[in-house]
Amino acid sequence: MADQLVESRRSEDILRQENQELRTFLKNCQRELTNAQSFFCSPGSIAENDIVQAVHALNAEIYQAVKRLAEECHLGSRRSDTKARQRITAIVEPRVTELLQNFPPQNDDRVVLEVALLATVMVYVAEMISLWTADRSVNEVVDAMYRSIVESEPIIVATHWRALARKHSMLNQATAEEQEREHVQGMLKHVSAVMEVARVKSWNEKDLHECLHIIARAGLALRRTVGEDVVASEYQVFAAQPDESFAPEVMVDQYAPNKRLQRTGVRVMCTLRLGLRRREREARGESKGRVEVKILIKPQVVLETIVQDLDLAEMKGERKGTKV
C-alpha cells in the first residue's frame, strides 16, 4: 500500500511538472504568435492617395522653384569651365549638357535652362529618396540584395525587411537637420553648375537656398514614408532612365508636338517630373510568382527629339539673322 502511495505521488509530480512545462510552452507560443501578428498584420496607417499627393506636391515644389530661378536670373557672357560641365554630366545624361551649351538661355526663351535644371534636381531627389544609407558606396549592394528578396520572398517579408533596414541604417548617423543641410548643399552644387554652363551671371541665392531646403525636407519625408512607414505595399518614387525607350503607358512625353503622334521607342533624354509605382506579387501570400508593377504617377520626360520638338535650331537661326 505504501509503495502504491509513493508511486501515485511520483506520478502526480511528473504530471505537475509536465503541466508546468506545457503552460510555459503555450505562453511562449502565444508571445511568438503576438509578435508574428504585429509583424505580418500591421495595418497601413498611410493611404495610397496620401503618397500620390505627396509626390505631386514635391514635383510642384521643384517645378515652381526652377521656374522662378530660370525666369528671374540675370544672363551674362561668362564662359563655363570644364569642372562645371563634369558636375552636371555626373548626375544627368551628357546630352543635357550639350543641349544647354548649344542652346543657351535667351532673354525671351529659357526653356532649355528649365529643362536642364529640372532634370538635374529630379535625378538628385529621386536618388535621395531611394538611398538606403548615408554612405552611398554601399547602396548598390543593399539595393541588389533587396531586389533579390522581393523576387524570392513574400512581399510582406520584403517590405518589413526594407522598413527595418532603412530605419536602422540611419541610426547613429546624421540627424534629420544634418541630412537636410547635406542634401541642400548637394543640390546647390549641381544647380550652380547648370547656371554656370548656361552662362548665367547672377541669381537670387537666398531664394534658391530657401526653396532647396523645402525640397530636401519634402524629399526626406517622402523617403521615410515609402521606405520606413509603409509596410503593407512597396512604393517607388522614380525618374525614367536616360536612353530608355519611350513607352506611353508608363511615361508622358512633355514636349510632343502632337499628342496623337506615336513616339513609342524614341529614346528618353531626361525626366521633368518624378513618377510613382507600386510593386506587388501576383499571388500575395506566395513566395513565388510574378511581381506586378502598377504606375500610379507617370514621369514626365523629354525625348532625344527635343531640338526638333521645340524648333530650337530654327529659333537660333532666326536670332543670328536678326543680329546680322
From TrEMBL:
Superkingdom, natural source: Eukaryota
Protein name: Uncharacterized protein
Organism: Daedalea quercina L-15889
